[in-house]
Specification:
Elements lengths: L1 H6 L11 H10 L30 E10 L5 E9 L5 E7 L4 H15 L4 E4 L8 H10 L2 E4 L9 H15 L7 H17 L11 H6 L10 E5 L22 E3 L14 E5 L2
Parallel strand pairs: 1-4, 4-5
Antiparallel strand pairs: 1-2, 2-3, 5-7, 6-8
Helix pairs in contact: 3-4
Length: 271
Amino acid sequence: MAWRVLRREPGQPWTGVNHKCIQRLWREEGLRRPGRARKRRRVAPGTAVRLGAERPNQVWAIDFQFDQTSDGRRLKLANIVDEHTREALAMRVGRTCTADDLVEVLAGLVAVRGAPEYLRADNGPELIAWALREWCRLSGTRTSYIEPGSPWENPYVESFNGRVRDELLNLEEFTGLTIAQVVVEAWRIEYNTYRPHSALDGLTPAQYAATCTHPTPPHPTHTLIASGPPTGVPSCSSRPRHSRETVSLDTPARPSASTSRSTFRAEIPLT
């Protein structure tokens, strides 16, 4: 990553430096090398096709992280990531984070970016609470919960959590809640606008998001089978995006008494 950052600054004396020189200097200075990533789990034959994001605002992933201030009191981070652009949409820092707090953060994001089609999350109590389910029903967002004890089914936000831990939480000591909120928000902005991402061909998440030329279509309301994502919407980038994650789809909408059990249909506004 350091080599990509140096190479993208034209006209500087270090523009022509190759990656081998950067690696040698990195070792001589005793700088920390990134840890090895966990091996990818393959999808077993016969399992359902995993839900993958093909455009911005299609899938937002949510997860929590924990740290503490210098006085030993707990900090709880609620991280929200767009799986397609890899943008860190929000990093809420507080002593606690209830379902109502999470709904408030999501409502603020929706006011700026529009509602996502899916929320991917684990089965934590804040994420399966009725407050969040009711918000999803009203905003037209469906939920995609991973299997219990299977964090690899939520890989994008788990990878982001690893970067947060290695590059922020393990390096910074927070003297108070306000300091933590300021430092974390500054790091989030730097992550989106300055840090190159290898999965985005060396672009930052903000740069890649700017290349997405096909905005999310408006919200026409029509009947949609709730067992799968809407189809026929063009991708925002010519670069193919493939995903191998498998999750079970769940919708917070409640069927009426006349709804057939074999085919559950819900009136959902498309995002």
